[in-house]
Amino acid sequence: MLRKPGSLSAVAAFVAALAAPAAHADWALNMPRGVTTMSQQIYSLHMTIFWWCVAIAVFVFGWMITSLVKFRHSQGAVPDTQMLHSTKAEVIWTIIPVVILVILAIPAARTLIHLEDASGTQLTVKITGYQWKWQYEYLDKGVSYFSTLSRDSDAARQLQSGVDPKTIPDYLLSVDNPLVVPVGTKIRLLLTSQDVIHAWWVPDLAVKKDAIPGFVNEAWFEVQADKPGTYRGQCAELCGRDHGFMPIVVVAKTPAEFEAWLKTQQQASLPAAPNAG
User: How does strand 179-182 pair with strand 247-253?
Assistant: First the structure.
């Protein structure tokens, strides 16, 4: 059988892409566990539903394969020409799926309710999306700043820049001013946009919320006390020409480190004292 050269080239390119180390850098089979209390709950729900699906698949496909092997024509099986009705079987295969759905719906509903419960927050940050940057305002703290793509990534992304992106740490995923938060603290986010629809998405925090012009969305997260670190995300809504160049970086610090950082930011935002004349 003859194949078109173009088809062979496409297959070869696909295989080469799979074999490339860079292509596998962030590839994973499962969703991340995350570092927040909510992400852990979501992951637990995900795995519960996953194992239920595995059990159902094993039962259904096991029954099918057994039937195909046991009642194959070579073993003398003869098809039944009469369709038999069984009320008992219909009741069973109706009740069992309903019971399974109820069992899964209870923890799913509990998780969804918890996901939308922003009560008891200890720090509120207003996030405003722009083309193509983010503004973070710590309400009642007197701190506000913009977060844009880091200069080295911005320089390397330019057409014919001559810079190899592989030499740039966290290429297109680093910013000049990250969002800084304390661990072990419930953070409330108020999200809106100044121009078009954006989406603030950080997988490790289990937060993905649209920022819509003229509307304020609410979300929350709490980084676990033993998980300080840097967590990265991106705008997840196609928002224009440079959509791919407005990353999100969240730095989680200990409460003492956060307070020291906050005081530094507050002092930097104070107006300069007039010169004595």
Answer: parallel
Please say whether the beta carbons of 103 and 55 come within 8 A. no
pLDDT greater than 60 at residue 274: no
Same structural domain, 104 and 145: no
Q: Is residue 11 part of a domain?
A: no
CATH of the domain at 239: 2.60.40.420
- Claim to verify: residue 197 and residue 254 sit in the same structural domain: yes
- Tell me the residue range of the domain where 95 lies: 30-70+91-117
- Three-state SS for 4-60 is CHHHHHHHHHHHHHHHCHHHHCCCCCCCCCCCEHHHHHHHHHHHHHHHHHHHHHHHH
123 and 259 Cβ atoms separated by less than 8 Å: no
Q: Tell me the pLDDT tens digit for each residue of 133-165.
A: 999 999 989 899 999 999 999 898 988 888 888
Claim: this prediction has a pTM higher than 0.85: no
